[in-house]
Amino acid sequence: MSPKGANPVPWDHTELSVGEVAARSGVSVSALHFYERQGLITSRRTAGNQRRYRRDVLRRVAFVRVSQRVGVPLARIAEALSTLPDDRAPSVRDWERLSRTWRTELDARIAQLQRLRDDLTDCIGCGCLSLSRCVLANPRDEMGEEGPGPRRLLVDEPG
Amino acid sequence: MSPKGANPVPWDHTELSVGEVAARSGVSVSALHFYERQGLITSRRTAGNQRRYRRDVLRRVAFVRVSQRVGVPLARIAEALSTLPDDRAPSVRDWERLSRTWRTELDARIAQLQRLRDDLTDCIGCGCLSLSRCVLANPRDEMGEEGPGPRRLLVDEPG
DNA sequence: GTTGAACCTCGACTCCAGTTGAGGTCAAGG
DNA sequence: CCTTGACCTCAACTGGAGTCGAGGTTCAAC
């Protein structure tokens, strides 16, 4: 990436502009602005008020994207990232710790979907979806969890 | 459920009011209105403009809730439901067919999350999240899929 | 010293899956 | 008759994760 074409690397070379971070991370500039507003990443400003990022912002952004794939909302990602040191660049241990948190999360989500799949398999056999007889239609698990919607599923009276 | 307490059953007894459907399905009245606007369920109206539902609306609603747990957006659920007969109540075979569709979907989602988990496990070892070296940060799979966000993740140049 | 790409802020808009509230109607009991 | 609770419509709002555009500035090159 020598200075030719549309995007030569200027100044310091250790710091990155928002456009460079966008190109390298695959995240749009507007999303990076947004992440900054949400406290997921931080930047220094130049004299002319332009953002300059430390190179480890790329890992932060990568971590954000991965976490989103796991299904974690930005607010919790921000929370996790806030446990990273603010001054020094995070170490391998730091990322390891964060990744481990999500593994647990992911295991739970997979287990949940597998239960759902098993129930669904049973119900393909029974074809029921009856509110009283069907595990699927009347789940006892994960009540207050997982997004908006009704907090309870009442049972159909027998008969 | 004889006529006593807060909610006696009026009129026909084979048809259900919106409040009854809400109580039996666990879905709020406002959500049922919303589902109707989205074409997920339908109702007849009384002389006084009140909704009356056929009893099989309970299965439709159950199907909607289950489908949401699978992760299918309402628009696609509506699409699936639109393949049901509009006149007669759907048969066991009908529900079976629909459920089978979601099973495939669910299998794919589970497989995807399992891949993600495996990658994450590897990355806990490597602690990398480097945009070039890490499968996690740079996935080749499921590109145009799964929600909003950037459609590509560029690679970090080597070195 | 001017051009043009890249940058800045701010507010408004999108989509999804609903919820909330205002203002009005319907139906049954006392 | 009047009250009460369930019902009706319609519009506006929520929240999450951004996108889009207007209007203005900075910066590197020519």
UniProtKB/TrEMBL annotation, chains A, B:
<keyword id="KW-0408">Iron</keyword>
<dbReference type="InterPro" id="IPR009061">
    <property type="entry name" value="DNA-bd_dom_put_sf"/>
</dbReference>
<keyword id="KW-0001">2Fe-2S</keyword>
<keyword id="KW-0411">Iron-sulfur</keyword>
<dbReference type="Pfam" id="PF09278">
    <property type="entry name" value="MerR-DNA-bind"/>
</dbReference>
<feature type="region of interest" description="Disordered">
    <location>
        <begin position="140"/>
        <end position="159"/>
    </location>
</feature>
<keyword id="KW-0804">Transcription</keyword>
<feature type="domain" description="HTH merR-type">
    <location>
        <begin position="15"/>
        <end position="83"/>
    </location>
</feature>
<dbReference type="InterPro" id="IPR000551">
    <property type="entry name" value="MerR-type_HTH_dom"/>
</dbReference>
<dbReference type="Pfam" id="PF00376">
    <property type="entry name" value="MerR"/>
</dbReference>
<dbReference type="InterPro" id="IPR010211">
    <property type="entry name" value="Redox-sen_tscrpt-act_SoxR"/>
</dbReference>
<protein>
    <submittedName>
        <fullName>Redox-sensitive transcriptional activator SoxR</fullName>
    </submittedName>
</protein>
<keyword id="KW-0805">Transcription regulation</keyword>
<keyword id="KW-0479">Metal-binding</keyword>
<dbReference type="InterPro" id="IPR047057">
    <property type="entry name" value="MerR_fam"/>
</dbReference>
<dbReference type="InterPro" id="IPR015358">
    <property type="entry name" value="Tscrpt_reg_MerR_DNA-bd"/>
</dbReference>
<keyword id="KW-0238">DNA-binding</keyword>
